[in-house]
Design a protein that fits this description.
The complex is a heterodimer of chains A (346) and B (332). Chain A is of the alpha/beta class and 346 residues long. Chain A has helices spanning 5-8, 23-37, 63-71, 79-91, 110-117, 120-123, 153-157, 170-182, 230-243, 262-272, 287-299, 321-327, 331-345, and strands at residues 18-22, 41-45, 72-74, 95-100, 133-138, 163-165, 187-192, 199-203, 215-218, 223-227, 249-253, 256-258, 275-278, 308-309. Residues 1-8 of chain B have low confidence and may be disordered. Classes of the chains: A alpha/beta (346), B alpha/beta (332). Bound molecules: thiamine diphosphate.
Chain lengths: 346, 332
């Protein structure tokens, strides 16, 4: 699948040629280039070196060959220790990039992430920084059932001190991972398991996308759709369908949830007057509620209709295909929601 | 045979009676055939998500469950089919669950990684490494509080030996003398991570000494050896003498799951373990002791294949769940 990054054509001054890469390859390139550039960057996690030459999703492939197993470290299954050590290593001057195979396992590592990584700097009056990246993948759609399909971005967004990144395209994945590694704070870098094989044009060489800058993946006039991860792709499909009936969606990918580019979202809502927020994570207390709240606070008078959330059902992700599909927001749900918003307000 | 655990155990070395051994053989063959079929179905795209085969490890689940009563609890891992069959689970309902059907154990909500049979006190396969360890100890706590006389067994892998939860639960189970047996299936690898480099201190059974409980290592390819050791540790737990570690040395003959690149372990190593296939070892023993003929064993195998055929047919004839089931079962 060629994604929207074709349309997006990012062109930073120092970027070289663009090549068609998968999301996984783009992430791999970011890691490789940052490890070459900065000797304090190292990678650790379960099965990141030996398994298939680098990670179960292939993101760390070949890194152990180039940088050795000192800097690309396979670990035992000890999530709490892995993250705890990464916090300490970062505080002491390294830039660890930790891979957690599935976000679902973060339950075991919440203590060092939430009570240590996120708070050390504040508690110590700014005397320390924790430049750590926690890379992991989330999302449903493959029949992995309830303990391997969650979208947990809201957990991390609720914790002051963490930054949260959710790229949806290969180009964004590379540019944002580079910025995450260079950032002096703990960054939770969330990938999506269904995106690894998607392809898009990615700039070669030095290429960083600043955290906190949203991207308009498709301009439109009638409804602003703010999507996360896979829902960006589904929103673009919905936009194609609705364009045929004259409804134009403006699809915005915030790309980073903390910090959030609220100016871009508000500007879009001021133009369209209508808002849909869409993510796979369960609706209740999800990040969508935060976006809706901010828009209501900052652009209430511009809204022509109540904002809608087209998000995951409030249920653990089921295994069976029919149930899993019903648990997740689908293109048809977005199409129906947008139609209702436009017609209801007409 | 004892690890450095404190109270030395006198492991009895009597053989098991013929009927129990034949039943063990039947179960091990059923597990093997179930797993082979699950892999076929996975490769044919009929099974979603993932499936983690138990092939090569059958003697552990079957040997331990031979020592259990129907009221005893077990908790399992992501590799849960063998444990479920050994605890008496129904292969039809298991297969239906793998195929995501409404007739499956969890109505299609759980799949391969969450096979569970609460009627048989099987607390479920678990997608979180080490996730079942506390569940088993908790069931043991209930058994103790309610004086049911039941005990609990937690099955987990060598990878889970490095999960912090095992330390906390082992300590708690020891100070509270909970009736639980921690069974580590040391199949030598946690995905690509070799037990030889992930486990500090060499012998995992030695860790039991730190909690003042017995740690026994057993040949996990020999179902009788597993059953004998388990019988001792289970009896000890039932007498109220507390928890213990049973470390079974075994091997998974195939990949961690169907997509395993298997690039991290030497080929000849797998061949060496395959030469001690637990099913063949038991078959040869049954024949040598005159407990069965080669024809009897072939008949048991054919019967197992027929049971699995029937299970697949049952599953395929079953309907998928309907969407109105999506929001049921969340709260009691
Ligand atoms: C907490 C947690 N971390 C990582 C994983 C991913 N994972 C699934 S199985 C596995 C290996 C488990 O090895 P072991 O405990 O030895 O059991 P085996 O697979 O060998 O039976 C890993 C790392 C997981 N499911 N849960």
């Amino acid at each position: 699948m060629v994604t929207t990054s074709e349309r997006q054509a990012p062109a930073p001054a120092s970027a070289g040629d663009e090549r068609l890469l998968t999301y996984a390859q783009a992430l791999n390139e970011a890691l490789r280039e940052e490890m070459r550039r900065d000797p304090t960057v190292f990678v650790m996690g379960e099965d990141v070196a030996a398994w298939g030459g680098g990670g179960v999703f292939g993101v760390t492939r070949g890194l152990a060959d180039e940088f050795g197993t000192e800097r690309v470290r396979d670990t035992p299954i000890s999530e709490e220790a892995i993250v705890a050590l990464a916090v300490g290593a970062a505080a002491a001057g390294s830039r660890p990039v930790v891979e957690l195979m599935y976000v679902d396992f973060v339950g075991l590592a919440m203590e060092p992430l939430v009570n240590q990584a996120a708070k050390l700097r504040y508690m110590f009056g700014g005397k320390v920084s924790v430049p750590l990246v926690l890379r992991t993948q989330q999302g449903a759609g493959r029949g992995n059932a309830a303990q391997h399909s969650q979208s947990l971005e809201a957990w991390f967004c609720h914790v002051p001190g963490l930054k949260v990144v959710t790229p949806s395209t290969p180009a964004d994945a590379k540019g944002l991972l580079v910025s995450a590694i260079r950032d002096n704070n703990p960054v939770v870098f969330l990938e999506h398991k269904l995106l690894y094989g998607t392809r898009g044009y990615v700039p070669a060489g030095e290429y960083a996308i600043p955290l906190g800058v949203a991207d308009i993946k498709r301009p439109g006039r009638h409804v602003t759709v703010v999507g996360i991860h896979m829902m960006v792709l589904k929103a673009l499909q919905a936009a194609e369908q609705l364009a045929e009936e004259g409804i134009e969606l403006e699809v915005i990918d915030p790309r980073t949830l903390v910090p959030l580019d609220e100016a871009a979202i508000v500007a879009s809502v001021k133009k369209t007057g209508r808002l849909i927020v869409t993510h796979e994570a369960v609706t209740r207390a999800g990040y969508g509620a935060e976006i809706v709240a901010r828009v209501v606070e900052l652009a209430f008078d511009y809204l022509d209709a109540p904002p809608l959330r087209v998000c995951g059902k409030n249920v653990p992700v089921p295994y069976s295909a029919v149930l899993e599909e019903a648990a997740l927001p689908q293109v048809a749900d977005l199409v129906a929601a947008a139609r209702a918003l436009v017609r209801g307000a007409a | 045979m004892d690890g450095a655990g404190q109270p030395a155990l006198a492991l009895d070395d009597r053989g098991l009676p013929a009927d129990r051994l034949l039943e063990a053989y039947r179960q091990m063959v059923t597990i093997r055939r179930f797993e082979e079929r699950a892999l076929d179905l996975y490769r044919a795209g009929e099974l979603r998500g993932s499936t983690h085969p138990y092939i090569g490890m059958e003697a552990v689940a079957v040997g331990v469950c031979l020592a259990l009563e129907p009221g005893d609890y077990i908790s399992s891992t992501h590799r849960g089919h063998g444990h479920t069959i050994a605890k008496g689970g129904d292969v039809r309902r298991m297969m239906a669950e793998l195929l995501g059907r409404a007739t499956g154990y969890s109505g299609g909500k759980g799949g391969s990684m969450h096979i569970a049979d609460l009627d048989r006190k099987m607390l479920g396969a678990n997608g979180i490494v080490g996730g079942g360890i506390g569940l088993a100890a908790g069931a043991a706590l209930t058994a103790k509080l309610q004086r049911t006389g039941a005990i609990a067994v937690s099955f987990f892998g060598d990878g889970a030996l490095n999960q912090g939860v095992l330390h906390e639960v082992s300590n708690l189970a020891a100070i509270w003398s909970l009736p639980v047996v921690f069974v580590c299936e040391n199949n030598q690898y946690a995905m690509s991570a070799a037990a030889a480099w992930t486990i500090a201190g060499g012998d995992p059974a030695k860790r039991a000494a730190g909690y003042g409980i017995p740690g026994v290592t057993v040949d996990g390819m020999d179902v009788e050896a597993v059953a004998r050791a388990a019988r001792q540790l289970v009896a000890r737990a039932r007498r109220g003498e507390g928890p213990s570690y049973l470390i079974a040395s075994t091997y998974r003959f195939v990949g961690h799951h169907a997509g395993d690149p298997l690039n991290y372990r030497p080929k000849d190593e797998a061949e060496r373990w395959r030469a001690r296939d637990p099913i063949r070892l038991l078959g040869e023993r049954l024949v040598a002791r005159g407990m069965a003929t080669a024809d009897d064993l072939a008949a048991i195998d054919a019967e197992a294949v027929a049971r699995i055929d029937d299970a697949v047919a049952f599953a395929k004839a079953s309907p998928p769940p309907t969407v109105d089931q999506l929001l049921t079962d969340i709260y009691a």
